[in-house]
Amino acid sequence: MSRLGVLTGGGDCPGLNAALRGLVARAQRGHQAEVVGILDGWDGLMEGRTRPLDRDAVRGLLQRGGTVLGTSRRDPYVHGEGGPSVAATLDREGLDALVVIGGDGTLRTAARLVDEGIPIVGVPKSIDNDVGGTDFTIGFDTAVQTATEAIDRITTTAESHDRVMVVEVMGRTQGWIATHAAIAAGADAVLVPEEPYDLENIAAVIRGRAERGHRYSVVVVAEGIDPPTGTSVVAPLDAFGFARLGGVSTIVAARLEELTGFEARVTVLGHIQRGGVPEPRDRVLGSAFGIHAVELILAGKFDRMVAWRDREVIDVPITEAIHHYQAVDPQGALMRTARGLGICFGD
Ligand code: F6P
Fold this sequence. Notes:
The protein is an alpha/beta fold.
């Protein structure tokens, strides 16, 4: 029987527990593998903090957001000496392979450990949907649902008060959440990192709506856009070297107020997008990924990442996750749909 370790790294998201549940269910079918849960991401692997994961330990997890293993943004190449700093735990626990459930930062670290000879299978998760090699990452769908519901609520109060409501969503340097939520909630404009913008164009949309009798507008802003020309936002870096984003919408709203004369208010949705009960799609995706990850390990296939493409679960080299960021294609169906609906990107 093989023994595999599993960790969840980076930001949490809904659907991680479904992945853990699927992984354990598959591993224990026919008593093919034992699963050791590693606590708090790479931290637990460096510090030897683990717990056994059997079928009972993952019961009732489908509906639970977050990760029962805990997670962190610590990294063996930043807070340790890379491979050697995780070797003791791998050895002590007698682990034959690791399943690493993470976003691009965690998977980049996984790929470096693979180069040091550690057998790893990656599982892509992130509300941002920005991991290369897969159409979808665990957590994205639920985040879009949460953002859409929030914008729906903001729209009714915008209308009552004749206000411009600027809603900032997460997504890091990609506009997947922003564009999906803008389409689904019927926003008037959306700013995404993939498209340059001029706030004059957004102001023109707001004025045009007012002239037609709609004295309110809803503007969705992706947290990762460049700040408006002539302004800047200071963002500290996390352990993976990513900027801690948030707050650009305040500048956007102030400018729009100046340009249009309408009162502009800001809502930063923040971590609410990472919490809550996973949508069915994230439960299914998590389950499918967990099962496929174990099957790869049982087949002796490592250095791979499980992926969802064209209605199937496949696997790709783990390096594909990090070498090809998944950005929203400006010519693709999503942006064409938004533009077809008349949503302004500010260009
Ligand atoms: O990558 C997921 C994400 O939620 C991003 O959308 C966001 O920029 C970041 O994580 C926030 O991270 P933290 O919770 O560490 O502040």
